[in-house]
Every structure is written in structure tokens, then in C-alpha cells.
Amino acid sequence: MKILIVDDEPPARDRLKRLVEELEGCECAGEAGNGTEAVTLAGQLAPDVVLMDIRMPGMDGVEAARHLSRLDEPPAVIFVTAYDEYALQAFETQAVGYLLKPVRREKLADTLQRAARLTKPQLAMLAREVAPKQRRTHLSVRMRHELRLIPVEEVLFFLADQKYVTVRHLGGEELIEESLRALEEEFAPDFVRIHRNALVAARHIASIDRSGEGQYAVRLRGHADELPVSRRLATDVLRRFRG
Amino acid sequence: MSSQSSDTAPAQPPAFYLPDFCATPTVLAVVLISELVAIVLTLARQELQHGFWIDLARTSLFLLWIGLSSATALCYSRPHLARLSVARSSAISLALPVAVTLLISEVTYWLGKSWFGGLETGVASLFPADHASFLLRNLFIAFIVSALTLRYFFVAHEWRRNVEMKARLRIDALQARIRPHFLFNSMNTIAALTRSNPGQAEEAVEDLADLFRASLKEARGRIPLKEELEVARIYQRIEQLRLGNRLKVSWQTDALPMRTLVPSLVVQPLLENAIYHGIEPLPEGGTVVVSGERKDDLIELRVSNPVRTLEGGTIHSGNRIALDNIRERLELAYPGRARVDVVSNATEYVVTLTFPLVEPVTEALE
Asked: By the number of CB atoms within 10 A of the CB, which of A12, A106, B158, B210 ranks highest?
């Protein structure tokens, strides 16, 4: 059984690694210090199980698990936590495997035996219970067997087109399978709806210019094209950015 | 993105001290006070055998009118008074009964004059004869009695608040002492070190024991600043094992008078917050700065940590509890002379404690 260990604290990783290697038939495939690393490594190493710390800087464990579930062959995820009242309640009700630090060897062996992939509803529930109001730090795009992560900070805008949404970010352009409405709900007020089909990152807006009679367009830093502001939303957008 | 917030509230919003004058116990108290004053006035005025009961009845009736009308006036104005400062609301609460007394005295005088003025005997003698002296005396008495009553309510309220605060502090202190998260993480670190680095594990256990001992001692009150800073350093050592070089703490506390007394565990929780909310969420870590200086008779102690830019300026609820706890303990130790200020912006979160310098009493004097 290939196991990926994810924890931001080196001593905690060392201990888990030692415990894993002492178990028969288990090997530590790799170690990651935060959620982003975990997602990248999981794509490359294709582990069977990920031992995932919850509280980590940058991307936390629950978000990393959500991204991992989008892999073709997602690994089973077992959460490891020192103390987290809400998380424990959620794990119990959702029958999600978890371990408490300091981890006991027998408990680890037992939980690894029963490790199962997390389902979408389980993950949605966890995201709500464990980190309410917390938005994702990254978007994930599936690339063959791996996941590519796009930091939300680097996203310039989302553009909806029939079935897909295009993400334009500092590093290029990608298609994702999420609805503009859900994205707007998750990332407001950092992202602003300027058109029926466009959601723009407030932090990247360079200017809002008049483009015609009662018409406005948004210009973004690091992007040549202008995005039109719909007449219906023009007042809201102008009020927000011009006071 | 940059949000600027400053929080300079004193230990607690000064809760309004006047009781609800519509509530039965308070009305009863007003009746009791009116009656007692009536008895005192009657005793002072009359030969005991001569018309005592009639005079008492007359004075009681008059005073009960004043007492209950004042209670009504205070009851209705209480919501407005509660919004004012203590000094202003006290002045108004004092003026109201005096005004009511003036009104009722006036009505009584004119009532007596116009209805019974013609009668030679009996009822007329119950009413005052001299207008000016009657009014003046009543106003003076009303002023003094109202002032005493207000003072009584104020002291009773302060006493109750103090008792409640102490009880709550005891509970808060128990909860705020050691975060469970910290305890279990430390245990985990020690478990990891026992094999890889037994020497360090041993030190960690000793540090943890010292930290717990310090937190249990809390009820005993004030300790020298030197000791408090030592506890904070012990805490830092334990966290350092876990976070490695992601955690840096810069101590700029040499200028502080180390012998001054402080309530125990006022610095360590600030460091804990700074690490938990400031350093841990940063992938690359950061530096917590603990600095302090003496300004005349005051000591200023600052703990600052970097903030993750995306959520700059947010104050977590756990942080609030710890800050409120420190604020209350400082207030209890130095009533009205200590402050806890929080300033946060997009890059930094700074907590400043200001409290008076207290030199320990020398051994010989004890």
C-alpha cells in the first residue's frame, strides 16, 4: 500500500512515516508540507492512501481532499488532526476515516485497513462543517492523470460560454466545469459580476472606461482585451469602484 | 483590501447601574425608602405624643407620591439614560426626582391654598403655609435623598459586577490557559522526538511541565515581569520544535523593568495568538516581535505578527476570548489604569498592553 503523508510539521511527518514503514505491506510513497504540494504529488505518485493533516498553511487538508477527489483514480483520504471539535463531529457523522495525534500504531493499522475513497457528498459536507465560509485557495484543472492548480489570486476573470467556464489567469487559460453562479457565491466580494457571462477579479481591475453612449468596459492589468460591462450591472459596478 | 481597525475599548462597556424602576423589587425599595424618610422627617419634627401618627400619614402620602412618580419617570427614561455616559446619566437621574418633587410640592401647595384655604381648622392645617420655605426645604431633602439612593444603587451594582467578573474570569482562565490544539500537537511532537532526538524530547517535556505549572499558578495573582517573559519563552521553545525555522521571535524587551509585577499569563497568550493566527497560516512563516518600553509610570508591551494578505484585518473568535480575558484581568489588577489596544491592517496585527509600573514590596516590609 502506497501512502502519501501530508503535514506541515516536520516532526509530525517523521513520526507518521516511521509508523507507516513499520507496518507490513505499507510504504511511504512521499511527504508533502501543505495542501498544494499534496495535490501535485498525489498526481505524480498515485498513492493508495493519503494521510492528511487538516490545519496547514496555504491550502488546508479539506480543500486538498476536494481537489484530490477529481483525479481519475482518487486515493483514499484519512484525516489526521490534533484537536478539532467541529471536524471530529463531521467525521463521525460522515463516517470519514480520521486519526488523532499522537497517532497510535494499532489505530493507524486499523484505519488504513478500512480506508475508503471520499465521496462527493462527504467532501461537500466536510467543507461546510470544518471550514465554513472559507473559500478555496486554488482551482483545480484535470490534466490527464494529474491535477493542475491555479491560485485564485492569479485568476483575472471567469467567462461563461454555453456549457463551460473559461478561467483566464496570469499563467494562461483553462476550462473548468463549474457554474459562474457558484463561483460568484464562493468568491464574492473579491470577484465581481460585470456581465451575465463574466466574473472579474476586483484586485486585477486597472480601470473602468466609458466605451460608448452609456456603455462601460473593464480593463484588467496584464490583459490586453477589454471586457464589456452590461447595462444592467453598470450602476452597481461603477458605484463599487468609483465610490 | 487594506482594512484599518482600532479597538481601544476599556475593560468592558460600562454597564448601566440604575436598576429597572418598573420591576417589583425596585418599586418595593422605593416605597421602603420613602417610608423611612417619612419616619425620619416625622421623628425630627414632632413631639412624640402630639399628632405623630397623623403627621406620619401625611408625610408618607406626600413622599409616596414623589417616590412612585420619580420611579415612573426613571423607568420610562431608563432606555435613553443607558445610552449616555455614567456621569451624564447620573446627573439626569438625580435631576428627575428633584424635578418631580418640585412639581408635586407645587401642586400640593396650590391644592391646599385653593381648596382648603378658607377653612379655619382641621384639613387646612395639614397643608403648608409658607410657600418658599416649603419648596426650598423639599428640594434640598429630595436632592440629598436621591443622591444617597443613586449612590447606593451604584455601589450595589459595582459590587455585583465585580463578583460576576471574578467568577467569569475564573472560568475563562481555565478555558484560556492552554489551547487543546497546542497540548495535543506538543504531545505529538514529543512522541516524534522520543526516538529521533531523545535529548530534545526530554527538554520539551520539562518545558511543557513548566508551562503547565505557570498556568496553574495563575490564581495566585501577580508575578514579576521577568517570570512572565520567561514563561513566554518556554512556550516559544515548544512551538519552535514543531514549526522549525518558519517561526522566528524577536525579543526587544531589554528596556523593560523586569521587577515590575504583572498579572500572570498576560504575555504568553499574546504570543500564542500571534503564532496560531499569524505564523501558522503562512507557508513561509514569519517573525513575531515582542517589544516593550517604559514611559514614565507606564509600561507598554507590544506583540505583533504578520498577517496573511488575503484575510488581512480579520480577528478570530479565539483571539477575542484571549484578548477579553487579558483585558479583564488587567482591569481587575489596575482598575481604570490599564488598556489593551489592537491595531490591525493588511500586513500586521499589533496588540499593545499598557499598564502602570508596580514595584514589588520589598521583603523587609512584608
From this structure: A12
Q: Which residues, 6+ apart, have CB-to-CB distance to B90 below 8 Å?
A: B150, B154
Q: Which amino acid is at B288?
A: V
The interface predicted TM-score (ipTM) is 0.78
Report the distance separating Cα B317 and Cα B323, nearest Å: 10
What one-character DSSP code corresponds to residue B297? T
**Last residue within a domain, chosen from A101, A130, A159:** A130
Could you tell me the residue range of the domain that residue A11 belongs to? 2-130
- Over residues B92-114, the pLDDT tens digits come to 999 999 999 999 998 888 887 77
- Same-domain pairing of A92 and A31: yes
Q: Identify whether residues A20 and A124 lie together within a single domain.
A: yes
- The reply to whether A83 and A188 lie within a common domain is no
How many distinct structural domains can be found in chain B?
2
- Pick among A6, A7, A14 to test the B interface (most B CBs inside 10 A): A14
- The reply to whether B206 falls in a domain is no
In the block, which residue shows the cell 496553574?
Answer: B216
Burial B257-282 (b: 16+ CB within 10 A, else e): eeebbbbbbbbbbbbbbbbbbbbbbb
Residues B194, B201 contacting (CB under 8 angstroms) = yes
The answer to whether B243 faces chain A, any CB pair under 8 Å, is: yes
CA distance A163 to chain B (A): 31
Are both A125 and A18 inside the same structural domain? yes
Closest-CA residue in chain A for B1? Answer: A203
Grid cell at residue A180: 459562474
Phi, psi of A47, rounded to the nearest 5 degrees: -75, 160
- Of A5, A6, A15, which to mutate for an interface test with B (greatest number of B Cβ within 10 Å)? A15
How does pLDDT run across B156-185, given as a tens digit for each residue? 888 888 877 777 776 666 555 667 888 899
User: pLDDT, tens digit, for every residue of A198-225?
Assistant: 999 998 998 888 888 778 999 988 777 7
Compare all CA atoms of chain B with the CA of A33 and give the residue at the minimum distance.
B283
Res. B330 pLDDT band, cuts 50 70 90: confident
pTM passes above 0.80 = no
Task: Please name the residue that has the C-alpha cell 527538554.
Answer: B203
User: Confidence band (pLDDT; 50, 70, 90) for B49?
Assistant: low
Residue A230 and residue A162 share a domain: yes
- What pLDDT does B80 receive? 87
Task: Chain A: give the shortest CA distance to residue B282, in Å.
Answer: 5
B141-158 mean pLDDT: 89
